[in-house]
Structures are given as structure tokens and as C-alpha cells.
Amino acid sequence: MTRTRMPFAAPAPRDDAAEVRAAIDRVVSSGWFILGPEVEAFEAEFADATGAAHAVGVGNGTDALALILRALGIGAGDEVITTPLSAAYTALAVIMAGARPVFADIDPARMTIDADAAERAVTPRTRALLPVHLYGQAADMAALERVAARHNLAMVEDCCQAHLATAAGRPVGTIGVAGAFSFYPTKNLGALGDGGAVTTRDPALAERVRRLRNGGQTARYQHEEAGVNSRLDELQAAILRARLPFLRGWTASRRTLAAGYRAGLSGTSVRVPPELDSGHVYHLFVVQTGNRAALQQHLATQEISTLVHYPTPIPRQRAFAASRPAHCPLADTACNELLSLPLYPGLDDVDLQRVVRAIGEFQEV
Questions:
Q1: Distance between CA atoms of 288 and 280, rounded to whole angstroms?
Q2: Are residues 87 and 138 in the same domain?
């Protein structure tokens, strides 16, 4: 029997296709493509959805992080403590702001930055903590807040994988001074291109990010400071507005699928990292195995697509050699063992059981 290849993700419009098409047509007909009514409306709607007082649309999640740091006055000579296990863009944003990324190892169960390791990394130059809510599960924010309070550090949340996630009941992106979100097409709320947003409760911070994203302008052709060009465009904002009402349902689907994986994979050769917060939104579903390459190849022969997030810890990337990164052995282990399985709205129980069976069979290979 010929198997249909199971994709890893399915970012194209599905149940939201009619709404997305209508949004695109609306913008094209309007003739207004940059910083117009769609962006303003999306900012208000996204702030409401995330529980934030303010949201500012920007070009992507990396820019969102860098602009937050710049708006806080963090730059040359400053240090920002962050995780070694994430997309490298988290730490690149620190460099973009002119600061030095400092890496503190992870909690091997939660896979996010460990608060004790972060505290050991604090120096007189440290200005901020930058936890990543990884795979959709919040970092241990209560522990990190205690570290931040003891050392008078700003807390900047990387929420790029955690739309609608909560940390002990509190919405991510509202706990620290600001949060950064990405709308890359494969995110839980994805655009059909790049996009990002900053959320914050601080009106002055929101206003400075708005200015910085648009070249530092206070009025047309009046540049008060050296900003950047990082504007969420009208087309992507309209698409995001069309998709936002689906997000809670999609999140529920992700959680149901994740529960199915947890039940089905119990007793197999893979280890499933625990769900340590019920606010987990499962951007990714990862498993750990000491035989990752063999398992990935086995699943490929079953026409099941998988990915590795992330094969190399950020501190071991050449781009960060100049920052004299610390050794993070727990992150090294995780990067050698983690494998991401298919999980997205539209994946059904038949698909899920196919993955579970294939992993169960791997024990005999």
C-alpha cells in the first residue's frame, strides 16, 4: 500500500481560507499597504487577545526583541542573559541592540532557561533577562521574576512560540516589561509572510517602539532618533486579523493532539518532556531519544516528516564566538536528542496514531 506523505506543518489557509481571501481582497482594493487601518485594528485586537495593554506591529519577531531592548535603553556595554536552546534569532536580537548575549543553561525538564543558572550569570553589566517560552510552554517565570527583582533587571519575554500561552495562569507577554511575538507562517498564529508584534503594559515603551519601528520619526520626515524600518504591513495585518478568531480553537486542537501523543507514546523508547504548565500551547511537540538519527530515518521510511529544533546550541554557533559564550552542557545534550513530530490543526487522530505506531515499531528496529 502506498502511503501519503505526512507533512511536518501545514501553514497554508485551511478552515480560514475564505476569511483570509476576503482580507487580502480588502487590502488590495483599498490601495493602502503600509501603517494603515488594518495594522491599527490588528494591534488593538491582538492586545485584547493576549491580555496586554498595548501591541505594536513590527516586521518580525527578531525585530520585536531588538526594538524592546533598544526602547529600554539597553545597548553597548550591557549584557542580556538568555537561553542557549532556541532559534538563534533570540540572541541575534541582543546583538542587534548592541548588547552582549550571555547564555545560562536550561532546566532539562522544562527545556527553558534555568533560574539558578541565570542568577549565576548576573554581572554588574547585566541589564535584562530574556527567557524564551519554548515549544509553547512558558519558562519558570515566578523563579525568574525573583532573580530579576533581586538584581533590578528588566524581564523581556520571547513569546514567539507561545501565542496565548500562560505561565501559572498569567498570559505570556504581560508578565515582564514587554513581550515579543512572531507571526512567521508556521507559528500558532502565522501570517503568509513575516510579521511580529511587541506587547507591553507601559504606554511610554509602546510609543517608543512605534517610533523606532518607523525610522525614529515623530512626524513625517522628522526623525527624532535613529530608528529602523520594521513595519508590519497592511496585507499581513489583515491576514492576521482574519486568522486571530480561529486561534483559540486551533490552540485547543494542538492541546488535544499533544494529549494523544503523550498517551500513545507512553511506554515507547522515546522520552516526552513533561507538561509543567497547563498553559502550554504546543507550538511544537518534541520527544527525546539517544538514537535520533535512526528514529528520524525510520519515520522518513514511513513517509512521516520530522524536524530537529535545534541541532546546534546557540553558544556553539560561530556567529556568537565574539561574545565568549559559556558552556551549557544540558543544552548540548538536549540539542543532540530532541526531535519534533508533526503537530498542527488539521492533523487528525488517524495521522497521530500512524506516528505513534511507527515510533512503537522503532523499539524493534
A1: 18
A2: yes
Q: Could you tell me what percentage of the chain is helix, strand and coil, using 3-state DSSP and rounding each to the nearest 5?
A: 40, 15, 40
Q: What is the CATH number of the domain that holds 98?
A: 3.40.640.10
Give the CATH number of the domain where residue 316 resides.
Answer: 3.90.1150.10
Residue 6 forms part of a structural domain: no
Burial (CB count <10 Å: 0-12, 13-18, 19+), residue 202: middle
The verdict on 160 and 253 lying in the same domain is: no
Contacts of 72 (CB under 8 A, 6+ apart): 127, 128, 154, 156, 177, 178, 205
What type of residue sits at position 265? L
Full residue range of the structural domain in which residue 74 is found: 17-245
Domain finish residue from 245, 273, 294? 245
Domain count of the fold of the chain: 2
In angstroms, rounded to a whole number, what is the distance separating the alpha carbons of residues 97 and 14? Answer: 38
Answer yes or no: do 87 and 232 share one domain: yes
Cβ partners under 8 Å of residue 251, min gap 6: 163, 164, 188, 281
Q: pLDDT tens-digit profile of 13-28?
A: 999 999 999 999 999 9
Q: Is 300 found in the same domain as 206? A: no
C-alpha cell of 228? 529602523
Could you tell me if residue 171 is inside a domain? yes
Residues 6 or more apart in contact with residue 314 via CB below 8 angstroms? 83, 84, 85, 86, 88, 90, 91, 101, 103, 320, 325
Distance separating alpha carbons of residues 352 and 304, to the nearest angstrom: 10
Q: Is residue 151 a contact partner of residue 143, using CB atoms and an 8 Å limit?
A: no
What tens digit of pLDDT does each residue of 311-357 get? 999 999 999 999 899 999 999 999 999 999 999 999 999 999 999 99
Per-residue pLDDT for 257 more than 60? yes
- Rounded Cα distance between 190 and 110, Å, is 25
pLDDT band at 365 (very low <50, low <70, confident <90, very high): very low
Give the number of other CB atoms < 10 A from CB of residue 39: 24
**Residue 346: CB atoms within 10 Å:** 14
CA distance 106 to 112: 5
